[in-house]
Amino acid sequence: MSDDDRLMHHEYDGIQEYDNPLPSWWSGIFIATIVFAIGYWFWYHGGGPGKSERAKFAQQWTQYESWKAEAERTHTVRVTEESLAELAHDPAILAAGAQTFAQSCVGCHMADGSGQVGPNLTDEYQIHGVGRIDLYATIRDGVPSKGMISWGATMKPRDMAAVAAYVASLRGSNKPGKGPEGGKVERFQ
After folding, report:
1. Is residue 57 a part of any domain in this protein?
2. By residue range, what is the domain housing residue 45?
3. Considering the entire predicted model, what is its pTM?
4. Do 104 and 156 share a domain, yes or no?
5. CA nearest to 175, candidates 128, 111, 118
6. Mean pLDDT over residues 34-41, rounded?
7. How would residue 27 be classed by pLDDT, with cut points 50, 70 and 90?
8. How far is the C-alpha of 131 from the C-alpha of 164, rounded, in Å?
9. Residue 38 binned pLDDT confidence (cut-offs 50, 70, 90)
């Protein structure tokens, strides 16, 4: 084939071009790419059996949320006098306890714990028991005869433990407020 036979029969600004077909390997790869893209789209996005990364993530996230909800519902926190004493020395736990106290307890015990309807939590007297675990039990079970509700059904165990640690930290600060109730107890270390 001569060069004249390969010239196209049109020109633009005096320029003529050759008819150079693409190599067959290049055309084959191009066609294979288009076929692959169509197959990929159908497999992952067009109703095929494959799952996209977004669909996999959504499924895993749903599983995680249900696992977390189940764990929160069934997870029991082992609360002991010793564990509450450890929590009482953690500033983050005390801050969380203070926040929960401010949201749930100030109506009866005042913001500073000095007592209003409920007892003064800052003096060295305690109505129910003597230790931190007794504070936790009172928060969890309530005292229906005195009007204190049970927080065990609505508050998470770790939040009740944080409130108990916070309330224990108030003992001995002796804020002026409601008079002493219960038996005299030692100040927590």
Report:
1. no
2. 1-52
3. 0.59
4. yes
5. 111
6. 94
7. very high
8. 10
9. very high
